[in-house]
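Async update (no meeting this week)

Hi team, since we skipped the sync, here's where things stand on the single-chain job. The sequence we agreed to prioritize is pasted below, unchanged from the tracker. I ran it this morning and attached the output directly underneath so nobody has to dig for it. Comments welcome in thread, and please keep replies under the output.
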Amino acid sequence: MGLCVSCDVAADGAATARVVLPSGELREYSEPATAAVALEEGWFLCDADEMGLQGSVAAVAGADELRPGQIYFVLPAEMLRRTLTLEEVAALAVKASAALVKASSAGGWRR
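Output:
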Protein backbone atom coordinates (compact mmCIF):
# COMPACT_ATOMS: atom_id res chain seq x y z
CA MET A 1 0.00 0.00 0.00
CA GLY A 2 1.88 3.02 -1.25
CA LEU A 3 1.06 6.68 -0.99
CA CYS A 4 -0.84 7.04 -4.22
CA VAL A 5 -0.71 10.67 -5.25
CA SER A 6 -1.27 11.30 -8.94
CA CYS A 7 1.36 13.12 -10.94
CA ASP A 8 0.65 15.05 -14.05
CA VAL A 9 2.98 16.27 -16.73
CA ALA A 10 4.76 19.61 -16.39
CA ALA A 11 3.45 22.62 -18.32
CA ASP A 12 5.97 22.10 -21.14
CA GLY A 13 4.86 18.48 -21.60
CA ALA A 14 7.92 16.89 -19.96
CA ALA A 15 7.36 14.51 -17.07
CA THR A 16 9.48 15.29 -14.02
CA ALA A 17 10.37 13.48 -10.82
CA ARG A 18 8.86 15.38 -7.90
CA VAL A 19 10.55 15.61 -4.53
CA VAL A 20 8.66 16.90 -1.48
CA LEU A 21 11.04 18.50 1.02
CA PRO A 22 10.46 18.48 4.80
CA SER A 23 9.39 22.14 4.54
CA GLY A 24 6.61 21.16 2.12
CA GLU A 25 8.41 22.73 -0.84
CA LEU A 26 8.18 20.77 -4.09
CA ARG A 27 11.18 20.41 -6.37
CA GLU A 28 10.91 18.92 -9.84
CA TYR A 29 13.83 17.22 -11.54
CA SER A 30 14.12 16.52 -15.25
CA GLU A 31 15.89 13.45 -16.57
CA PRO A 32 18.53 12.40 -15.83
CA ALA A 33 18.73 13.14 -12.11
CA THR A 34 19.81 10.85 -9.30
CA ALA A 35 18.54 10.62 -5.75
CA ALA A 36 21.83 12.13 -4.55
CA VAL A 37 20.99 15.55 -6.07
CA ALA A 38 17.97 15.91 -3.77
CA LEU A 39 19.71 15.02 -0.51
CA GLU A 40 21.65 16.60 2.31
CA GLU A 41 23.49 14.80 5.10
CA GLY A 42 21.18 13.33 7.73
CA TRP A 43 18.29 12.83 5.29
CA PHE A 44 17.20 10.13 2.86
CA LEU A 45 14.91 9.93 -0.13
CA CYS A 46 12.01 7.48 -0.32
CA ASP A 47 9.63 6.59 -3.13
CA ALA A 48 6.02 7.47 -2.27
CA ASP A 49 4.78 4.27 -3.92
CA GLU A 50 7.00 2.16 -1.66
CA MET A 51 5.63 3.67 1.56
CA GLY A 52 2.92 2.08 3.60
CA LEU A 53 1.84 0.86 6.99
CA GLN A 54 2.89 -2.75 6.46
CA GLY A 55 6.67 -2.38 6.36
CA SER A 56 9.63 -0.19 7.03
CA VAL A 57 10.60 2.89 5.04
CA ALA A 58 13.43 2.17 2.60
CA ALA A 59 15.84 4.67 1.10
CA VAL A 60 16.31 5.20 -2.62
CA ALA A 61 20.02 4.65 -3.33
CA GLY A 62 21.92 7.85 -4.12
CA ALA A 63 22.99 6.54 -7.53
CA ASP A 64 19.44 5.55 -8.55
CA GLU A 65 17.87 7.71 -11.22
CA LEU A 66 14.67 9.50 -10.26
CA ARG A 67 11.72 8.30 -12.35
CA PRO A 68 9.70 10.92 -14.22
CA GLY A 69 6.14 11.14 -12.96
CA GLN A 70 7.08 9.74 -9.56
CA ILE A 71 6.82 11.50 -6.18
CA TYR A 72 9.57 11.16 -3.58
CA PHE A 73 9.88 12.41 0.00
CA VAL A 74 13.00 13.67 1.76
CA LEU A 75 12.81 12.25 5.30
CA PRO A 76 15.07 12.45 8.36
CA ALA A 77 17.52 9.57 8.85
CA GLU A 78 15.80 8.47 12.07
CA MET A 79 12.75 7.40 10.03
CA LEU A 80 14.81 4.98 7.93
CA ARG A 81 13.81 1.32 8.27
CA ARG A 82 10.99 1.89 10.72
CA THR A 83 7.28 1.46 10.21
CA LEU A 84 5.38 4.70 9.71
CA THR A 85 2.35 5.44 11.84
CA LEU A 86 -1.01 6.18 10.26
CA GLU A 87 -0.61 9.81 11.35
CA GLU A 88 2.81 10.09 9.65
CA VAL A 89 1.49 8.64 6.38
CA ALA A 90 -1.51 10.98 6.48
CA ALA A 91 0.72 14.00 7.18
CA LEU A 92 2.97 13.12 4.23
CA ALA A 93 -0.05 12.69 1.94
CA VAL A 94 -1.38 16.11 2.98
CA LYS A 95 2.06 17.68 2.51
CA ALA A 96 2.40 16.18 -0.98
CA SER A 97 -1.08 17.26 -1.99
CA ALA A 98 -0.51 20.83 -0.78
CA ALA A 99 2.88 20.98 -2.54
CA LEU A 100 1.38 19.76 -5.83
CA VAL A 101 -1.49 22.27 -5.66
CA LYS A 102 0.89 25.12 -4.84
CA ALA A 103 3.31 24.13 -7.63
CA SER A 104 0.55 23.80 -10.24
CA SER A 105 -0.78 27.27 -9.43
CA ALA A 106 2.70 28.83 -9.35
CA GLY A 107 4.16 27.08 -12.37
CA GLY A 108 6.32 24.66 -10.39
CA TRP A 109 10.02 24.60 -9.52
CA ARG A 110 12.25 22.60 -11.85
CA ARG A 111 15.89 21.60 -11.92
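Quick observations from my side:
The radius of gyration is 13 Å.
Strands lie at 17-20, 26-29, 43-47, 71-76.
Reply here if anything looks off.
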